[in-house]
Amino acid sequence: MIMTQEQAFLKAQTDLQTLVAFVRQAAEEEQRIDQVERHLLARLLRLGLVLLEGFVAEHGDGDQGEAVAGADGSRLRRLPEAHVRRYQSIFGELSIRRYVYGSREGQKIESVPLDAALGLPAGDFSYVVEDWAQRLCVHESFAEAVATLNHLLGLRPSVRSLEAMNRALAESAPALTDAQPPPPAREEEPLLVVTADGKGVPMRKPRPAGPRRSPRRGKGEKANQKQMATVGAVYTIAPYVRTVDDVVEELQRTARARERPAPCHKEVWAEMTCVVDDEVCNGRVTLFDRLADRAARRNPDGRKPVICLLDGERALWEARAEYFPDSVGILDLFHVLEKLWTAAHCFHAEGSRAAADFVNERLRMLLEGKVGYVIGGLRQMRTKRGLSGAKRKTLQTVITYYENNRAHMKYDAYLAAGYPIGSGVAEGACRHLVKDRLERTGMRWTVEGAQAMLYLRALYLNGDWETFLEYRIAREQKELYALPAA
């Protein structure tokens, strides 16, 4: 139970004197400084807990008389026995004893004056613990986060509690994104770029209705299934005019683009297909809706050219046609290059000089806008070389890919205008946002858990973590007490 204010402050003074005596003794004993640090941290945490108890005690027990007025004007009675709630701070756990108001014991508690005065959260964990714990969770597994908190602060939350905390925080993420103002116009660049890609998330298998017949997987049964997360980004960038030689040299890593402009105010997001109120919400549609909203806010007068960088997935291009019909659609050059290598290996051995020459020659043609020549040349080689079987089928896949995306492969015009032609930002977002956290060894997710982690990780990577926490605290405080954050 909480000490009285006087007891807490007297104990704090005693503990502080003990700390001073410890430091003096450590100096006399010539202890290493790191040993002193560790002992000081443990003792300072205990001192912090005592001072926090004094802070709570200074607010009293919340007794405001036999009755108080409810929000609707009703008369709420003070319940006869004080109620105790757990509060897990960074210094340790407090048991806060306070009076509550309602109609009668066993019914809903309508008012807790001390909770409102202190600005206590809805759950047991302090907002500081939530902040520190979830900073760890967006980078490492929940179990590793528990171990780190225990090592540094002596806190031992369960993995399940951190998972629940993660989901609770994520509920406020979309609302913050919708409320975020656009970056200052003076800090933006002339080109607005939108890009999207898909990344698989390993999912937990649903539990079978009955017992498994065998611990071994059946023929063709995969260890785990993946569900696609659609990852997108919106940013502005300065035009960057290049020649064909510049691009080829950079791709071959014989030269580095030292003057390449960096994306400005990059915002990444990810959405998974989920079921809400028995209705399927398509993750791709949700993502493009959000990208379109952010793009419109960052280009309110429509003066910036909008570049939509995508790979060859039809569903993404269909979404682009709906949400960004007036954009310049560009097929990601890296995917085009991958297809060239696939075609090269239909005729030449992997790793051979002949395969590299094959790719370089046709890459230059593509960058010069000669897509039709490349397609025609591949068809002629298929016939002249008499390709058959698997290789013929593979080459046809490449030809079809180029034919289907020909309208978005005007690289000569894109380079002259200074437009970006590679979706490295989308690839990087898939890696940093999804793979680096959700695809670590042995990880399996539910849709709800994966989406929550993607929301929080996106906010962290976008540099919005502190803003999000303040927003979320203010929102919860208003819901709990109809007051702004304490």
Structural overview:
With 486 residues, the chain is an alpha+beta fold. It has helices at 5-28, 33-58, 113-118, 127-137, 142-153, 159-170, 173-179, 244-251, 283-298, 314-323, 333-344, 353-367, 371-384, 389-404, 411-417, 424-438, 447-461, 465-481, and strands at residues 67-69, 75-78, 83-88, 93-98, 101-102, 109-111, 191-203, 225-237, 264-272, 274-276, 279-281, 306-310, 328-331. 50% of the residues lie in helices and 15% in strands. The strands form four sheets. The protein has a five-stranded mixed beta sheet with strand order 9-8-7-12-13, sandwiched between helices. The longest helix is centred in the N-terminal third of the chain and has 26 residues, at 33-58.
The major β-sheet equals: 5 strands, mixed
What is the CA-based Rg, rounded?
A: 30 Å
- Strand % is 15-25%
How many alpha or pi helices? Answer: 18
Number of domains: 3
Q: What is the average of the pLDDT values?
A: 90
Instruction: Give helix % range.
Output: 40-55%
Oligomeric state of this protein: single chain
Gross morphology is elongated
N→C terminal distance: 23 Å
The helix-and-strand class reads alpha+beta
Count of DSSP strands: 13
Strand order of the largest sheet: 9-8-7-12-13
Which parts are unreliable, with pLDDT below 50 for 5 consecutive residues or more?
A: none
